[in-house]
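Reopening: Glutamine amidotransferase still failing for me.
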Amino acid sequence: MKSIVYVYILDTMADWELGYITAAINTAASYNQTTPVYSIQTVSLTKEPIRTLGGLTIIPDCSIDEINERALAALLLPGANTWNEAKHQTILHKAEDYLNAGILVAAICGATLALADLGLLNSRLHTSNSKEFLTTFSSHYTGNTFYQNTLSVADRHLITASSAGSLLWAKQIMDYLDVLSKPMLEAWYNYHATGDPKYYTELMTSTQ
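Support: Ran it again with your exact input. Result attached.
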């Protein structure tokens, strides 16, 4: 079973962008439902600790060459200020392979620029922090006509989001992976998007 969601971690990672999706995946197993259960594993170039933009130190669960591709359900690529470092090309080419194999790749913020510079956004609907962010900083980006001015976009096994889109990004990832039932997912999203307690009640009711 494809049960592992890998999160690539790197120095200066925007740790808050992963909060919604990692928490939702890790708590889904406690809900009374029959949808697939996933585990989160952090992966990096090596097992050396990384330091996030928020000041947290994280030790990766595995290195890139230890990814269990038979169990791989998705690869998440968070934003970071260091995506332009050559060493990250290894995971980016893995991401390209996974997309071609029909495996979900989800990128947010600076990771979208890294995918753009690899040419992976030139023929898929996508978004980022802004269209200008991609056209200014990527010499290989020609996907202007596919750019969507919205917080998060899903297209053919690829989900991209702006730095302000982590909630919708998380919803689209969970929808793709069937992490929560549809009613539960809608209640979860609406509560976090609006703060309206009626959606919290719906969420709690749907877990019973």
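The longest strand covers residues 39-44. If you still see a failure, please send the error message rather than a screenshot.
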